């Protein structure tokens, strides 16, 4: 499909407004006390445990709202600062967040065809304004996720993923989702995974990294873990950020995952070696 002339902006802005109206927010879970220990945060699946609930459907959930400083409209390949606040009920900016794997907020961008994945970490000003330099490289509609833990008025932890759609004007042809495979490239590395995700059943997934055909057994901790796994469901872009078991398991990074429904999912596995972060991407068909 090719968009031309004034219909480009009109069509994409209309799609953006439609994205604003999506109201399928995952219900947040809360712990009994505020803490800076990320392993006690329930629905973000720390320490290998995961509920299978997806978030990222709405810009508002649990009494909190994602409020961008300007409409999220970008030019392809042109970087600019994206600024936003998280607002509590009554419109007051939130300034208290619970550390979650070394960061107060994780920011993820992915195009609606599940290409172009970025995992970034904005900085927050004293007034609660978050900002991040952001470049969206290609035309289309992009989902921007904010993944964080804050506190409700009673002091209980509230883990949330709020999201908004951004538009990048221009000729847009959705890229087909790569076929399901158990091996993927990550720069100079090969990554494989073992395990079979099943709908509504918690299953182990173990990722192994290879260099020159030899297993890499000296992965480094990145954001307090040996790996990170973001899962996005094809179709509605439901989002889940999974953290692994604390230690390597036979040299592998082991996660526990429960997919909430059958369907196709895209898995983005990140790891660190020699101070550099690498990413392997997999398509998984869940039955």
Word description of this protein:
With 287 residues, this protein is mainly β. The protein is built from 1 helix and 19 strands. It has a 5-stranded antiparallel β-sheet with strand order 1-2-4-8-7, with no helix packed on it. Strands 3-10-9-5-6 form a 5-stranded mixed β-sheet, with helices on one face. Strands 11, 12, 13, 14 and 17 form a 5-stranded antiparallel β-sheet that branches. The longest helix has 14 residues. The chain is globular and about 55 Å long. The relative contact order is 0.19.
Name the structural class.
mainly beta
The number of E-state strands comes to: 19
Give the helix tally.
1
Which strand-content bin applies to the residues?
35-45%
What does the overall shape look like? Answer: globular
């Amino acid at each position: 499909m090719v968009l031309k002339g004034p219909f480009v902006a009109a069509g994409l802005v209309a799609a953006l407004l439609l994205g604003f109206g999506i109201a399928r927010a995952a219900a947040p879970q809360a712990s009994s006390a505020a803490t800076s220990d990320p392993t006690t945060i329930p629905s973000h699946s720390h320490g290998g445990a995961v509920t299978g609930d997806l978030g990222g459907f709405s810009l508002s959930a649990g009494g909190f709202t994602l409020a961008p400083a300007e409409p999220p409209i970008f030019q392809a390949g042109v970087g600019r600062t994206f600024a936003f606040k998280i607002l509590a009920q009554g419109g007051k900016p939130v300034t208290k967040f619970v550390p979650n794997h070394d960061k107060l907020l994780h920011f993820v961008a992915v195009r609606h065809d599940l290409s172009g994945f970025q995992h970034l970490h904005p900085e927050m000003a004293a007034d609660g304004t978050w900002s991040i330099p952001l470049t969206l490289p290609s035309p289309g509609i992009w989902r921007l996720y904010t993944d964080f833990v804050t506190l409700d008025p009673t002091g209980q932890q509230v883990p949330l993923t709020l999201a908004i759609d951004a538009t990048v004007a221009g000729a847009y042809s959705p890229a087909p989702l790569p076929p399901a495979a158990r091996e993927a490239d990550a720069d100079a590395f090969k990554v494989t995974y073992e395990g079979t995700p099943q709908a509504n059943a918690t299953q182990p997934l173990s990722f192994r990294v290879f260099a020159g055909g030899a297993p890499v057994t000296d992965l480094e901790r990145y954001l307090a873990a040996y790996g990170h796994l973001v899962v996005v469901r094809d179709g509605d872009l439901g989002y889940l950020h999974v953290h692994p078991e604390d230690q390597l398991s036979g040299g592998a990074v082991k996660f526990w995952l429960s997919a909430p429904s059958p369907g196709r999912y895209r898995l983005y596995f990140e790891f660190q070696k020699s101070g550099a972060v690498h990413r392997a991407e997999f398509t998984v068909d869940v039955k």
